[in-house]
Amino acid sequence: MTRASVEDLVLGHVLDGKRRGRSGGGGAEGRLGSPKERRSRALLRNAAAPRSWQSVVKRIVGGSTRTPQELKRLLDYVSREEGVQSTWCNLAGYDRDFDPERTGRIAQTWSSTWNGAPKRGHTDHIILSFPRGVDADRAEAVARDWGQTVFGSGEYGDVWRYVAALHKDTDHLHAHFVVDKHGIEQGRFMSICRHAALNFGVMRELHAEISQEHGLSIVASTRLSRGLIENAPRETEMRAAHASGKTTPPPPPPMSDGERVRRLDALQGFARDYDELAQIAGLASASGAEPSATSFMARLAAALGASASALRQGVPQMPDATLHAEGDAAARIEAARAEMIASATEAWEAIRAMEPSAERVELERSFADQARTSLKLAPDNLLLAEHARAAERSEDPYHNPTLASLARLDQGMTEGISLDAGLRATLAHVRDEIGERLTALFSIREDELRIAGTSVEEMIARFSLAERSEGQRASWIAEQPNTMQKVFWMEAERALGQEVRAELAAFNLAPELTEAVAREQMLSADRHLRLSEVPAFEAIVDRMQESMRPEDLERVRSGDLGPLAEQVRDPALRAAVAHELKNEGDLGQSGTVGHWADLARSQARAADLGQRERGLERDHGHEL
Fold first, then answer.
1. Which CATH architecture has domain 6-34+45-219?
2. Where are the domains of the chain?
3. pTM above 0.85, yes or no
4. pLDDT (tens digit per residue) in 247-264
5. Which of 56, 150, 475, 587 has a Cα-to-Cα distance from 567 of 20 to 30 A?
6. Max CA-CA distance within the chain?
């Protein structure tokens, strides 16, 4: 058996810890990121790079070897053929130049470890191609980095030895890799297939990513993601057409109707992905310093939107080649993402550094709104995710249904509800009066609140929000100095929440405002919630039972809503109240919110349409 040289053994030992990765390492996730990140990167580069610059990584059919003699002939061809730019190898797990005179020795060394008779031989012959016009030095740098990443890093199952050469004998540069498929660290046999850690998709993506790092724009994406439904013509047919001097490419291979339908359906999925990325680019453009109409991100958003539109029509996308000259779209998105995250972190730290006040709570609320929008740009960022999620009502000691509804009414947050000037004035007066009551309630604990890092004014603002984010709640607890204080404060929050509920239970709203609150709670509640679990609505039902005469209650239960006409002015609410009165009289069961919320929305749309029609009639001089 031929032994490795002293040079190989010593250098291999010295450099062992310097290899980028070990056997069984992170695989594609390590350098390429998550599957979603990889998919997004490919689509971004589709929309902003010349379509012809696609990565080409292929196995030479019949290029494997089974004997030392076959391997030597292949190594001689790869390393000594006229037109070779450079040769290198990875014989002991590290990259170094290769001496073509050593092909016989390498063949004996590799074959000495071979066992069995694999169907595809003991070696693989892989070609890595480059676009026309790429200079040789850059192509070699990319090829060396790619070979070491794929075969020498240990991230894809093992470390495999290879001999590589960069050829310039065709109209475009290409690198040959002759790889020994027997791993030198764990003895794993290299398998390049779709479901393995190492596959041609990953190899193409690594080619594109490493090329970008070396300033060369290459894209690794599927034909379907570019809107190309047909398969590419077979390579043998392409060669035959080229040899015969034909200028038109051969027709694509035939496709069944079922396969065509499946691919058209897949195009719609890619179209949705392009739309999502367009929204992200639009957000980045809106937050940038450049004029939005001319910024790179704005034009990228337009290109992504155009790609989505093309794929929806089942036609190939038309990338915006002008964006390619301004840098890598995926890198620009990543830079915008990093800048946005840094700005968000800085903004949150500045908010928390403020003195306790209602203004600080309002800025926290505004930050949560921005987090919900920005989370599309950075879905994995913990800070944004925490603030984008509203705290669960059942676990939020600050949640009070009445205060939440008043806040949503004040901010116009609930679709289908609009307040006239008189009711808005009533709402403002009620919120002021509730604020005074809460001030009196919290003032007797002013010292305790100060020790906890808050104030009376800030506590009123916290309770008065429509909702609180998980990030807000976590920060209010985290600012307590130790674990004991955290536990004490969480108990104090629950106690204060109970006192606020008791205070508001004795507070009577005007009937018009009660109806608005009940309608708001019904429209914003979970569809499967029972009507009896909507606090303001149930208060109206209780009031009707107490104030209406028995004979009027019987009329309502029999289907006559006349007795409710003056008591409940809102038609949808009136119908829901009648339904509850009938159920309580007959079955003692409550209906669910969904149906009545839909009725309220449809009535709101009808009323809005009627107002617009009356406006048009007035504009044309007509009267009803």
1. 2-Layer Sandwich (3.30)
2. 6-34+45-219, 393-505, 511-619
3. no
4. 777 788 888 889 989 999
5. 587
6. 111
